[in-house]
């Protein structure tokens, strides 16, 4: 399944890649608690429990993944691409074609929390 949120911010690829790290995730997403970590990897607390998290630099921004998540939750934060080339796209995925409504809603809320946090950043 795929999920999208669009942040209206002037962040560009370079700012996303420099500022949005594992160690700083909690500054941008109020529902994430960074338990430990550096720029590229660490452990976080979420509404779904505690997970190791990894970050990758990708074209246009960054990708985060939870390698031990039973639903393989991953999300990207990118700038300069459709569906919002003038904004920042937060795109989340899980490895299931469907899931229970409460879990789906929690992912939508997770991306919305990212959107709100990213809109507070000054590039």
Notable characteristics:
single chain, 123 residues, alpha+beta, 3 helices
Q: Summarize the main sheet.
A: 7 strands, antiparallel
Lateral arrangement of strands in the main beta sheet: 1-7-6-5-4-3-2
* Alpha-carbon Rg, integer: 13 Å
Give the CA-based shape.
Answer: globular
Number of helical segments?
Answer: 3
Order of helices and strands: EHHEEEEEEH
Strand content: 35-45%
Mean pLDDT, nearest integer?
94
Description:
With 123 residues, this protein is an alpha+beta fold. The protein has a domain at 2-18 and 54-119. Helices cover 24% and strands 36% of the residues. It has a seven-stranded antiparallel beta sheet with strand order 1-7-6-5-4-3-2. The longest helix is centred in the last third of the chain and has 19 residues, at 101-119. The mean pLDDT is 94.
Write the layout of secondary structure elements.
Elements: E1 2-7, H1 13-19, H2 25-28, E2 33-37, E3 41-46, E4 49-58, E5 61-65, E6 74-79, E7 88-93, H3 101-119
Antiparallel strand pairs: 1-7, 2-3, 3-4, 4-5, 5-6, 6-7
Can you summarize this structure?
By secondary structure, the chain is α+β, with helices and mostly antiparallel strands.
